[in-house]
C-alpha cells in the first residue's frame, strides 16, 4: 500500500531553485533514506512533506489523501485549519529535537494527543508511557529535557512524534547533533521501529546505517533525484557518476 | 505639627497609602495593557506597528516626570477639561509609561523563543492559540520575570515623581514636615519606607523565580 506519493515537487527561495521536480513513492512499512551533500535540498524536501514549507508546484499524497494537489502548474494547499488536520498523518523528528523545555518527558509526549486529538488525559499519559518504553525511556518519565543526554532527548522527540500515530514518520538528520555513542542508541531505536513496521523517511549522513536499515535510498543532488532504488545496491554499487563521487568522498 | 518619631511615622504611613495606591493601580493596569501594546507593536500591518513603535519610543525617550506634568495640565490647556482629580491623571501617566516598558519586555521574551518551538507545535498539529498558551507563554513568563522584577522595583521609587503635581506621597509629606517643624531627619526616614516595600517585593520576586526554576 502506498503511503507517500511525491510528484514533480518544485520549491524556490527567491532566485534559488532548491527542489527541481522531485518525485518518488514509499510503501507502507518501508524505510527510505535520503542522502546527498549539504545544500542539495534534503531538508527542504522534508520540510515540504511536513508542511513547514509550501511547495511552488507538484503534489503530495500521504496515506491515500492528496493533501497538496497541482492545478495549472501550481501547488494548491487546503485552508490552514484543514491542512493542520490533514497534516497529522505525517510526523517529524528534528535535528535539534525541539522538545518543550517546560514539560516533563511524559508531558512532552502527551501534550499533542490531549490538546490536538482531544484524547483522554489518563489514556494519553498511559499511551505516552508505553511509547516511551518502546524507545527505552520508561525510567525518565518525570525528567525534564535539560536533565537528559542528547541521545535521550532525541528518543523523546521520536516518542513524541509516534504518540500522534503518524502514517509516515520523517527524520531530519536525527543524529547529526550527537556523538558516536549517542548516535548508536538513536539508530538502535530507529531499527526497532522498522521491525515494528513504522514507515520512515530519513534524511541522514550515516551511510552505513542507511545501507543496513533502509529498504530504499534516494540520492538528492542540487534539487534533483539523480539515483534511487534499493538502498544496499545504491550505496554499494551506485550507477550515477555523481553518486559514486559522493559516496567515495564521504567514505574517505 | 510635631516632629516626634511617632507623629512623623504616622504622617508618612498615611502618605504611603497614596504611594501604594499608585503602585498597585499602575501594575494592575499596565501589566495587561503592556500585552496590548506588545501585540500592536508586533502587528503584521506595518503602519500600525510603526505608530506603536514611535509611541513607545516617545514614552521611553522622555522623562516620566514630564509625562506626569503633561497628563495633568494638557487636558485643561488643550481640551478645556477641568482636572478635578489629579491622582487619576497621574495614575494614567504611570500606567501608559509602564505599559510601554512592559510591552518591550514582553516583546523581548516572545522573540527569544526559538523558531523550533513553533515548528514542533506545528508538526504536532497544534493550533496557533494552543501553541501560544501551552508552549510559548509559559516559557515567556519564565524569561520575563527577572526584567519585570527590575521594573517593579523601579516603580516603587518612581511613585515619588507624583509629587511634581502635588500628590501627597511620602517624599512631599516629609518635605512638608521639614518646612513646618525644621527637623531634617524625616526626609531620610522616608528611605526606610521604600526599603521595606522594595524588600518585600524582592522576597516575593525571588519566590516566583524559584517556583519557575524547575526547568532550564
Task: List the main descriptive attributes of the protein structure presented here.
heterodimer, A: 252 residues, alpha/beta, Rossmann fold, six-stranded mixed beta sheet, five-stranded antiparallel beta sheet, 9 helices, globular, B: 216 residues, mainly alpha, MetI-like fold, 8 helices, 0% strand, flat
Structure in words:
The complex is a heterodimer of chains A (252) and B (216). Chain A is α/β, with parallel strands linked by helices and 252 residues long. Chain A has a single domain, classed as Rossmann fold (3-Layer(aba) Sandwich), CATH 3.40.50.300. In chain A, 37% of the residues lie in helices and 28% in strands. Chain A has nine helices and eleven strands. In chain A, the strands form two sheets. A six-stranded mixed sheet of chain A has the order 7-8-9-3-10-11, with helices on both faces. A five-stranded antiparallel sheet of chain A has the order 2-1-4-5-6, covered by helices on one side. In chain A, a hairpin with a 2-residue loop joins strand 10 and strand 11. Chain A starts with a strand and ends with a helix. With 216 residues, chain B is mainly α. Chain B has one domain: MetI-like (MetI-like fold). Chain B is 81% helix and 0% strand. The longest helix of chain B is centred in the first third of the chain and has 37 residues. Chain B starts with a helix and ends in a 5-residue tail after the last helix.
Amino acid at each position: 500500500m502506498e503511503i507517500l506519493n511525491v510528484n514533480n515537487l518544485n520549491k524556490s527561495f527567491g532566485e534559488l531553485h532548491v527542489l527541481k521536480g522531485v518525485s518518488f513513492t514509499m510503501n507502507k512499512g518501508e524505510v527510505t533514506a535520503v542522502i546527498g551533500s549539504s545544500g542539495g535540498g534534503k531538508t527542504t524536501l522534508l520540510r515540504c512533506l511536513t508542511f513547514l514549507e509550501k511547495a511552488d508546484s507538484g503534489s503530495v499524497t500521504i496515506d491515500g489523501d492528496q493533501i497538496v494537489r497541482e492545478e495549472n502548474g501550481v501547488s494548491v494547499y487546503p485552508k490552514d485549519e484543514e491542512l493542520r488536520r490533514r497534516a497529522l498523518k505525517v510526523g517529524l523528528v528534528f535535528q535539534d529535537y525541539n522538545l518543550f523545555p517546560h514539560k516533563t518527558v511524559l508531558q512532552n509526549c502527551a501534550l499533542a494527543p490531549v490538546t490536538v486529538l482531544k484524547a483522554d488525559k489518563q489514556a494519553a499519559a498511559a499511551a505516552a508511557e508505553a511509547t516511551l518504553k518502546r524507545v527505552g525511556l520508561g525510567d525518565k518519565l518525570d525528567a525534564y529535557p535539560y536533565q537528559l543526554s542528547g541521545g535521550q532527548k532525541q528518543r523523546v522527540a521520536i516518542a513524541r512524534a509516534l504518540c500522534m500515530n503518524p502514517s509516515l514518520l520523517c527524520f531530519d538528520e536525527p543524529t547529526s547533533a550527537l556523538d558516536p555513542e549517542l548516535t548508536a542508541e538513536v539508530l538502535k531505536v530507529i531499527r526497532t521501529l522498522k521491525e515494528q513496521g513504522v514507515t520512515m523517511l530519513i534524511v541522514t549522513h550515516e551511510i552505513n546505517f542507511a545501507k543496513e536499515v533502509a529498504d530504499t535510498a534516494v540520492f538528492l543532488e542540487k534539487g534533483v533525484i539523480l539515483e534511487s532504488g534499493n538502498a544496499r545496491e545504491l550505496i554499494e554499487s551506485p550507477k550515477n557518476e555523481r553518486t559514486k563521487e559522493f559516496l567515495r568522498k564521504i567514505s574517505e | 505639627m510635631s516632629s516626634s518619631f511617632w507623629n512623623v511615622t504616622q504622617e508618612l504611613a498615611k502618605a504611603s497609602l497614596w504611594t501604594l495606591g499608585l503602585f498597585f493601580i499602575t501594575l494592575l493596569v499596565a501589566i495587561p495593557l503592556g500585552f496590548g501594546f506588545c501585540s500592536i507593536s508586533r502587528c503584521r500591518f506595518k503602519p500600525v506597528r510603526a505608530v506603536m513603535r514611535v509611541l513607545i519610543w516617545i514614552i521611553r525617550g522622555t522623562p516620566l516626570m514630564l509625562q506626569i506634568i503633561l497628563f495633568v495640565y494638557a487636558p485643561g490647556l488643550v481640551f478645556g477639561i477641568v482636572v478635578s482629580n489629579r491622582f487619576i491623571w497621574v495614575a494614567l501617566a504611570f500606567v501608559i509609561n509602564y505599559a510601554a516598558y512592559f510591552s518591550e519586555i514582553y516583546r523581548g521574551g516572545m522573540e527569544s523563543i526559538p523558531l523550533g518551538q513553533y515548528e514542533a507545535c506545528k508538526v504536532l498539529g497544534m493550533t496557533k492559540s494552543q501553541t501560544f498558551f501551552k508552549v510559548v507563554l509559559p516559557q515567556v513568563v519564565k524569561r520575563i520575570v527577572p526584567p519585570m522584577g527590575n521594573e517593579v522595583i523601579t516603580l516603587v521609587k518612581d511613585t515619588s515623581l507624583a509629587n511634581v503635581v502635588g500628590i501627597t506621597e511620602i517624599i512631599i509629606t516629609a518635605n512638608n514636615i521639614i518646612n513646618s517643624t525644621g527637623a531634617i531627619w524625616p526626609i531620610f526616614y522616608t528611605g526606610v519606607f521604600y526599603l521595606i516595600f522594595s524588600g518585600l517585593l524582592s522576597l516575593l520576586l525571588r519566590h516566583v523565580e524559584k517556583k519557575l526554576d524547575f526547568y532550564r
